[in-house]
Amino acid sequence: EDKVVQSPLSLVVHEGDTVTLNCSYEVTNFRSLLWYKQEKKAPTFLFMLTSSGIEKKSGRLSSILDKKELFSILNITATQTGDSAVYLCAVDKGRGRPLHSGGSNYKLTFGKGTLLTVNP
Amino acid sequence: DAGVIQSPRHEVTEMGQEVTLRCKPISGHNSLFWYRQTMMRGLELLIYFNNNVPIDDSGMPEDRFSAKMPNASFSTLKIQPSEPRDSAVYFCASSYALTSGRTSTDTQYFGPGTRLTVL
């Protein structure tokens, strides 16, 4: 059975701290891993990772994938109260060409998320 | 663009009633996804469509759930009959996937969700 496991389940930090969120997976036909941020509404997309060792960066957020060890991390540096949210990891195990290469077959399995609380 | 539109935003119904959730994807998007989110199970993909055709419905929990996409701008998720364990937030998302070998956007845009409570 496919599994996506995130850790920790919950994290409380002070503003300015750096956090690392973990996502490990066991899926057949792995194609890509995605990170989402969810506040009190719908999830918003952060990153999609397909290749090992290539860091993706957006401001204070960065993420990297290790396809050999089957995990990904999401780093947030200099955290702010606005970073408080649930961070979701999802693995795409669609068949055929990946979505980012023009394919259209797409199936996501989500982890349960990490609840990050950043206190002032 | 108005983004993904879902209706209703909240629904409270009694067990056994039929529930229909509606979604209007972003204009021009050709992929549509229905998700369910609960505290116990997190965010689950129920079904997704590409060019109005259901591609994978293996996430649909049981026969009481059905989804349709009669055209590119509208989709419904129906639960009949509803049960208390169906109580959840149901999200619709859409994206655009090119089918001719060029890099496509990989972002799914989520709607605000429908909070369903079945008593």
Briefly note the structural class of the backbone of chain A. mainly beta
| Fraction of residues in helix of chain B | under 10%
Name the chain pair whose interface involves the most residues: A-B, 27 and 33 residues
Amount of beta strand of chain B: over 45%
Number of strands of chain A: 11
Kindly provide the radius of gyration of chain A, computed on alpha-carbon positions and rounded to a whole number of angstroms: 14 Å
Give the ordered list of helices and strands of chain A. Answer: EEEEEEEEEEE
Mean pLDDT across every amino acid position of chain A? 85
Concise summary:
Chain A has 120 residues and is an all-beta fold. Chain A has strands spanning 3-7, 10-14, 19-26, 32-38, 44-49, 56-58, 61-66, 71-76, 85-92, 108-110, 114-119. In chain A, 0% of the residues lie in helices and 52% in strands.
Quickly list its features.
heterodimer, A: 120 residues, mainly beta, six-stranded mixed β-sheet, five-stranded antiparallel β-sheet, 11 strands, 0% helix, 52% strand, globular, B: 119 residues, seven-stranded mixed β-sheet, four-stranded antiparallel β-sheet
